[in-house]
Recover the amino acids of this structure.
């Protein structure tokens, strides 16, 4: 019974003209406290009840840097759409970008600073104030810097660009630390290295899919998650049906059909790791048939002499006829373009493979031309060093930590404990006296931190981005907070600035907030001129960027480029190497970055967990894809649990019989297998755990497709959770096609069944 | 004329093709399967715009997921000559909709814009419409779904959150259509301009496979695409007279 006295009772009874009695009384006393329906008497700027306000900012769900517009109502973010003025996204957005709202409103976000109270990994944390947390870190930083021991400070961030990257540089520099690294599992190290070798610069060019007529993709899932999927999709759509005179054709070469493989006109499965050999086989055909007439023709002839069509057919398993046909089409269709990445680049010969792909572009002279490969001008933003750590670099970091050379490690949004295979990274972390994490979520690495200073999400922070690759010209975008911070968190930049201040570095890093730092940075861009910027004041320039969400410089790069003869002479792709003998481990494991969960950082978003995988329609779990014939031989059916064992570990997952994968290869999506990442994420298995530590020889990047495995049935099975329905058309003609072979099998359409119509 | 005859007469008129031509708009969509890559951006965009529930693993396993637009996938052939074809499937907004005739309480009906609409407050959950729908695009709320706080802060205030026992399906983002009409009216325009209103799925489609517009406007992009020789309707033999028109995927043999 609610606590009321006699006087209250009379008041209540008197107040109620209708419902006098116990029921009424109860209702009155247990009803919710009065809430304001309209939250503001004097509303803040840009706020009117019932009317949506849109803010332009930048997506941070992957490294593409799409411009987005966020719709807010009454101070809450409701919907994310692509920013129509942004050259990368052009108003469009992928599923992952849409789901950014669930990063902001995720129920498993860290709501304030925490300090580990028990043993590391025990998961027992106590809330602390920002001052306590910051003091503890800043004191250590100051001490180490004062003793000239700054290099004992490690800074490990996810890939960041623009002024946040510059701030980290400045911070590390002032601390006296050279250990500033970025780590992302799917960073295309081998592509940067291959471009450095071939073009002389370690940058990404712009691939003009939009205007190309024939695309050869060696393993790059450009529509799924390779580099800039939204922009590639725009180009793909236009190339296919956006031109009245021509329809672009797409060829995908990979051992397991990806989304891009399904979209392609032709899907070719070369033996894993031989994609580069195939590229050189095509190059050989082009040169030997006299389709290349450059001055260095003789050099090419000599360099490619070991890649005759028959030899390459033998090595790659691709038919000689196919090689001839593709090479001829590639050279006769103008413009044509070759790209490489994904699984083809994740072998021991990754860089050589991608150099071979670049060679194809060179031989058809598409460099700098519409529909080809276009060099990007220098980014407009702050120049910062490429800090991306390869697998080898991360191993060195771990070794350093084990030697006791790292006193304090500051982590920002990267999760190496989850995404670094057999590196002993966890053991290495144990040797570091103080681990600080700036993550917004309790990822597996953050769970081992001593102090957690949680960051805002990207929808609550100031930032900026200079997309890499650009779109053939230089663009920059500013990201702004679209809602007030939900919790007691701070922007990454602000945390770093505060740490710098408390560590006594404010002479060199005087900014009080990230917004000021970015604004000062943009003042430099403004001062440098370009366009008509000088006609307006900086403030109006700044406001116009915030409003548009993007700023661009229409400066194009001179496409002229001379190929070093030594590159031609050294061109070769060695056969791939695998870990594990083919007798003991008969299958090659093809792990691929999940289309829905990306490298695992999106696994805590319920929309993405519940989004059917594009190829298999499976949700909420892990699976292993096996060729139907192989599955038949092994008597495996969908849902059968199997143990997948490599020389480095063992995991268990249910079978999915996948029609478009080579026999001898099994595939698994990366992304599941979290243990501390929250209620939606903690499920499935992580195939990274069983990958071998083999690397690409030239860069030290992880050769993630170079592990051999064996599979063993467990006799148990589960029901895979996926969308219903038959995966075959059975003559229903639901997806109709034109211009090709008629759909196989008989038609089961209603009008093909003889029925008697009764005349009326 | 008896009352029964009058009802039957009304039905006949209502069901006759061309009945909707006299109204202001006739919304329609084209889906170019030669552009579609199956990326499912449309699926998430719809989920975000229309407050679709997160049903959870158990309900999903029971086949009780709610996705107003989904990607269907069909394998063709065997390795190595194998293809996977995608098709986005959503309410086809049939002008002769089988679901409309069967609803005992007229919870689903055809509005004057050519939209097949669902009145949640009228729905009593017989699920007959879902049985009659040949496209399987009607979704029933078998459970009261909830959003773990603060995920509920994302919910779109322009769209109702449906409760247990109610049928739901794609609305062509009717809230956006209404808003566009209001804006047009405020601007003193009689009609909504082509491209002014786009459902969430069309808006986000990275390959621009989905196009939405007014079929009564011969100059609209969607009207022009409907004249494309590649057009077909799914399950056309059922004479549902759907408003979603697909453009066939081009599969040329190796040149």
């Amino acid at each position: 019974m609610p606590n009321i006295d006699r006087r209250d009772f009379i008041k209540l009874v008197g107040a109620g003209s209708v419902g006098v009695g116990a029921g009424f009384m109860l209702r009155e006393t247990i009803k919710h406290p009065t809430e304001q329906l309209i939250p503001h008497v004097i509303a803040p700027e840009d706020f009117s009840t019932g009317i949506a306000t849109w803010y332009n900012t930048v997506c941070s769900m992957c490294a593409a840097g799409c411009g987005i517009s966020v719709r807010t109502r009454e101070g809450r973010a409701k919907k994310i759409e692509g920013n129509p003025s942004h050259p990368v996204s052009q108003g469009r957005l992928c599923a992952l970008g849409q789901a950014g709202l669930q990063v902001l409103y995720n129920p498993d976000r860290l709501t304030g600073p925490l300090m580990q109270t028990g043993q590391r990994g025990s998961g027992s944390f106590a809330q602390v104030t920002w001052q306590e947390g910051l003091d503890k870190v800043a004191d250590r930083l100051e001490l180490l810097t004062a003793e000239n021991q700054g290099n004992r400070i490690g800074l490990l961030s996810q890939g960041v660009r623009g002024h946040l990257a510059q701030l980290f540089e400045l911070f590390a520099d002032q601390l006296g630390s050279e250990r500033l690294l970025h780590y992302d599992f799917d960073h295309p190290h081998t592509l940067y290295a291959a471009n450095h070798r071939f073009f002389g610069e370690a940058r990404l060019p712009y691939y003009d899919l939009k205007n190309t007529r024939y695309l050869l993709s060696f393993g790059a899932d450009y529509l799924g998650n390779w580099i800039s999927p939204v922009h590639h999709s725009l180009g793909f759509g236009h190339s296919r049906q956006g031109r009245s005179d021509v329809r672009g054709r797409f060829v995908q070469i990979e051992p397991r059909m990806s989304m891009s493989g399904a979209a392609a006109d032709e899907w070719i499965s070369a033996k894993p790791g031989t994609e580069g050999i195939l590229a050189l086989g095509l190059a050989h055909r082009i040169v030997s048939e006299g389709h290349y007439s450059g001055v260095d023709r003789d050099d090419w002839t000599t360099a490619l002499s070991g890649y005759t069509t028959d030899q390459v057919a033998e090595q790659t398993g691709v038919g000689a006829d196919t090689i001839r046909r593709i090479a001829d089409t590639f050279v006769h269709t103008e413009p044509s373009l070759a790209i490489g990445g994904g699984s083809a680049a994740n072998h021991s010969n990754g860089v050589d493979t991608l150099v071979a792909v670049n060679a194809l572009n060179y031989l058809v002279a598409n460099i700098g031309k519409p529909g080809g490969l276009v060099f990007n001008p220098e980014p407009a933003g702050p120049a910062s060093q490429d800090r991306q750590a390869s697998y080898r670099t991360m191993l060195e970091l771990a070794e350093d930590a084990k030697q006791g050379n790292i006193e304090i490690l500051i982590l920002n949004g990267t999760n190496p404990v989850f995404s670094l295979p057999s590196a002993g990274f966890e053991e290495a972390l144990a040797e570091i006296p103080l681990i600080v994490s700036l993550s917004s979520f309790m990822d597996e690495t953050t769970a081992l931190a001593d102090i957690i200073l949680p960051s805002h999400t990207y929808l609550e922070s100031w930032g900026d981005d200079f997309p890499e690759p650009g779109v053939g010209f230089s663009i920059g975008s500013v990201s702004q907070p679209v809602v007030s911070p939900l919790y007691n968190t701070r922007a990454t930049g602000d945390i770093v600035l505060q740490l710098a201040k408390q560590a006594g570095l404010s002479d060199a890093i005087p900014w009080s907030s990230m917004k000021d730092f970015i604004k000062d940075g943009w003042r430099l861009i403004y001062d440098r001129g370009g366009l008509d910027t000088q006609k307006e004041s900086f403030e109006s320039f700044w406001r116009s960027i915030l409003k548009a969400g993007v700023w661009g410089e229409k400066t194009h790069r001179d496409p002229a480029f001379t190929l070093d003869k030594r590159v031609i002479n050294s061109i070769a792709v060695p056969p791939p190497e695998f870990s594990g003998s083919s007798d003991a481990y008969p299958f090659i494991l093809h792990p691929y970055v999940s289309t829905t969960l990306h490298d695992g950082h999106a696994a805590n978003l319920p929309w993405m967990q519940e989004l059917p995988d594009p190829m298999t329609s499976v949700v909420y779990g892990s699976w292993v894809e096996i060729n139907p014939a192989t599955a038949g031989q092994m008597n495996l059916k969908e849902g059968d649990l199997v143990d997948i064992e490599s020389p480095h570990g063992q995991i268990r997952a249910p079978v999915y019989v996948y029609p478009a994968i080579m026999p001898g290869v099994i595939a698994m999506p990366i992304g599941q297998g979290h243990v501390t990442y929250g209620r939606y994420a903690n499920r499935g298995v992580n195939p990274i755990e069983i990958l071998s530590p083999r690397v690409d020889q030239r860069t030290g990047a992880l050769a993630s497709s170079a592990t051999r495995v064996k599979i063993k049935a467990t006799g148990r099975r589960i029901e895979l959770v996926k969308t219903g329905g038959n995966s075959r058309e059975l003559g229903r003609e639901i997806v109709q096609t034109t211009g090709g072979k008629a759909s196989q099998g008989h038609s089961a359409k209603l009008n093909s069944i003889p029925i008697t119509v009764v005349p009326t | 004329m008896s009352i029964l005859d009058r009802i039957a007469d009304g039905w006949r008129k209502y069901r006759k093709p061309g009945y909707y031509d006299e109204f202001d708009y006739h919304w329609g969509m084209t889906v170019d399967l030669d552009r579609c890559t199956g990326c499912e951006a449309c699926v998430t965009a719809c989920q975000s715009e229309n407050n679709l529930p997160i049903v959870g693993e158990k309900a999903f396993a029971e086949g009780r997921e709610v996705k107003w637009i989904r990607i269907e996938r069909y394998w063709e052939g065997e390795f190595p000559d194998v293809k996977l074809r995608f098709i986005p499937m959503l309410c086809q907004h049939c002008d002769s909709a089988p679901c409309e005739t069967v609803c005992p309480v007229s919870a689903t009906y055809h509005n004057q814009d050519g939209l097949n609409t669902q009145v949640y407050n009228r729905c009593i959950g017989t699920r007959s419409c879902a049985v009659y729908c040949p496209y399987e695009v009607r979704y029933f709320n078998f459970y009261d779904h909830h959003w773990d706080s603060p995920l509920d802060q994302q919910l779109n205030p322009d769209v109702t959150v449906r409760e247990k026992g109610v049928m739901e399906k794609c609305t062509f983002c009717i809230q956006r259509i209404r808003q566009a009409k209001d804006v047009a009216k405020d601007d003193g325009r009689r009609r909504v301009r082509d491209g002014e209103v786009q459902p969430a799925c069309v808006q986000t489609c990275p390959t621009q496979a989905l196009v939405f517009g007014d079929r009564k406007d011969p100059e609209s992009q969607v009207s022009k695409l409907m004249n494309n020789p590649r057009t077909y309707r799914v399950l056309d033999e059922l004479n549902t007279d759907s408003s979603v028109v697909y453009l066939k995927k081009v599969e040329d043999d190796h040149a």
